[in-house]
Write a structure and sequence with these properties.
By secondary structure, the protein is α/β, with parallel strands linked by helices. It is built from 9 helices and 11 strands. The structure holds adenosine monophosphate. Adenosine monophosphate (AMP) binds next to strand 9 and helix 7.
């Protein structure tokens, strides 16, 4: 891969990173450090002039929006919540698939439908506000940063809006999924100015990832 500019890609740490690294490897981008042991946040790669930064998911759109990173890989859940201003989203990478859903205690779904106000605990307050507004329900939103499934058990909320993969976390806490808000996967995002000023390099990365994703789907 021929990169003519200094380019930084912001990656989401955790589960998404585990699925991102094999994808990057298939297009010839290998980190120069072992990310499972290194605590470095900025990491050079085997491609000259191409660096990676490893961030919390919700910070990835911010770094890309302000141009501190030229490209990024983030979950669609995070992009929906952030509003994703000032960035392009040219490619669905098809990794880290899951669903953004409402959920509540098993056997109590009809109770929520009867209420005019519903208390909802979530870290996705913007997505949740839009979802309940569309249903004509008034939602009192309670922002949480983790373990959302605890909120209904503790009487803090009627429902939660959270990521569901296998549904095991919900089931183990006496909860059931209710409505699908969005199917989620990780997306490649690009700073709008970088797309113009570093076009050849950014394009080379988008095209390489696009063909790797297409091959993966065909396989
Ligand atoms: P599960 O028990 O398989 O339904 O997994 C649900 C939990 O795993 C949720 O609380 C999420 O925080 C987390 N999770 C699962 N998949 C993803 C993903 N693709 N991106 C971010 N978090 C996820």
């Amino acid at each position: 891969m021929n990169i003519q500019h200094d380019i930084t890609i912001a990656l989401t740490k955790g589960r998404i990173l585990k699925e991102t690294l094999p994808l990057l490897s298939r297009v010839g981008i290998e980190p120069c450090e072992d990310l499972s042991v290194s605590r470095k946040l900025v990491v050079a790669t085997t491609v000259p002039r191409l660096n990676l930064v490893i961030l919390r998911g919700s910070d990835v759109p911010t770094y890309v929006q302000y141009g501190s990173a030229d490209l990024g890989i983030a979950g669609k859940d995070v992009l929906l919540e952030s509003g994703a201003a000032g960035i392009y989203e040219p490619l669905d990478l098809g990794i880290a698939r899951c669903r953004l859903m409402t959920a509540g205690p098993q056997g109590t779904d009809s109770e929520v439908e009867l209420k005019r106000r519903v208390r909802v605990a979530t870290k996705f307050v913007n997505v949740a506000r839009a979802h309940y507004a569309k249903k004509g329900l008034h939602a009192d939103l309670i922002k949480l940063y983790g373990s959302m499934e605890l909120a209904p058990l503790m009487g803090l909320a009627d429902e939660i809006v959270d990521i569901v993969d296998t549904g095991k976390t919900l089931a183990e806490n006496g909860m059931a999924p209710r409505e699908l808000i969005a199917d989620i996967s990780s997306r490649l995002i690009v700073n709008k100015a970088a797309m113009r000023t570093r076009h050849a390099s950014v394009r080379a990365i988008i095209d390489a990832l696009k063909s790797a994703v297409t091959q993966q789907v065909a396989a």
